[in-house]
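ok, trying the design again with the full structure, not the truncated one.
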């Protein structure tokens, strides 16, 4: 999982540990030998997470009798340990949903996220629990917002060299625009996530400018050439990625210090907007978090954010 997903998982787990007043450990074993993604939180933010050992993690894997029974009878069509009920389809999904009625997820020692939206039983989990899921809602950590923001303080040595552009961004009515393309343009991801059309960004710029007439737009993208070619506007605009910054995390940091944000359907820019500490900020987000996915994502966006059709 990428940075944004790691942050959601950390924030939910940290909130539960604070609520229960118990230690908090992370299982990062899934990143071992995985070359596309790596665990990044310790190296980017001013925190030192405690990691669970393989021996500690193993004792939680035995408490999934429904999956074990299914795999015994259908060895060629297994439900794996980390598979979530709402990611399944057909009979598999029905079986897991029925098991949830008999034995609710939040009462188990291994708490597997049963739904994509906020689970109101989250804080009723056992004190000793292993969380599996995305936990992609601000509602999980809203009561511990201050602690989460503090933990996600950027390591200063990673961004000290950006002082000039940082001063410029802080001095004007800055608005970040995040355009995510690259992996979202593949056929599989385009079908699931969807690529936000340029019309959304143009409408968002007009909406933002109507609220903040002196806006200066700063564009961040993993395809900055496409952004330059397609995002044309009469308002002041600066293309940042690969021009001023050299890494995605430098983009992330600069987006957090903009006064306002226009985000993509991406956890990366979601967190940048969330960590923006401007009390009067305007955040504009696309209506569709997913293009074609059987997930109810009603609790993804904070209530104060402006949602525009995408």
């Amino acid at each position: 999982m990428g940075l944004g997903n790691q942050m959601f998982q950390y924030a939910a787990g940290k909130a539960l540990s604070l609520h229960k007043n118990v230690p908090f450990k992370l299982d990062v074993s899934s990143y071992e030998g995985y070359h596309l993604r790596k665990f990044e939180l310790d190296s980017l933010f001013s925190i030192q997470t405690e990691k669970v050992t393989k021996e500690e993690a193993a004792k939680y894997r035995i408490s999934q009798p429904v999956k074990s029974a299914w795999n015994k009878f259908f060895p060629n069509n297994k439900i794996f340990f980390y598979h979530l009920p709402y990611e399944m389809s057909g009979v598999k999904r029905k079986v897991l949903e029925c098991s949830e009625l008999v034995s609710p997820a939040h009462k188990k020692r291994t708490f597997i996220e049963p739904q994509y939206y906020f689970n109101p039983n989250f804080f009723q989990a056992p004190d000793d629990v292993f969380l599996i899921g995305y936990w992609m809602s601000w509602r999980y950590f809203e009561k511990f917002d201050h602690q989460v923001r503090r933990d996600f303080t950027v390591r200063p040595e990673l961004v000290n060299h950006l002082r000039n552009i940082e001063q410029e961004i802080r001095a004007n009515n800055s608005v970040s625009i995040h355009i995510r393309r690259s992996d979202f343009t593949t056929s599989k991801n385009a079908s699931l996530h969807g690529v936000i059309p340029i019309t959304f960004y143009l409408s968002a710029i007009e909406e933002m400018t109507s609220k903040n007439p002196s806006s200066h737009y700063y564009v961040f993208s993993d395809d900055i050439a496409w952004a330059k070619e397609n995002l044309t506007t009469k308002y002041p605009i600066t293309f940042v990625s690969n021009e001023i910054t050299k890494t995605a995390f430098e983009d992330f940091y600069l987006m957090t210090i903009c006064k306002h944000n226009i985000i993509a359907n991406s956890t990366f820019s979601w967190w940048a907007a969330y960590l923006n500490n401007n009390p009067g900020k305007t955040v504009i987000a696309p209506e569709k978090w997913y293009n074609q996915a059987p997930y109810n994502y009603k609790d993804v966006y904070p209530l104060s954010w402006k949602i525009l059709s995408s």
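Keeping the full-length input from now on. Strands lie at 25-26, 50-51, 110-112, 130-132, 174-179, 216-221, 237-239, 260-262, 283-286, 306-308.
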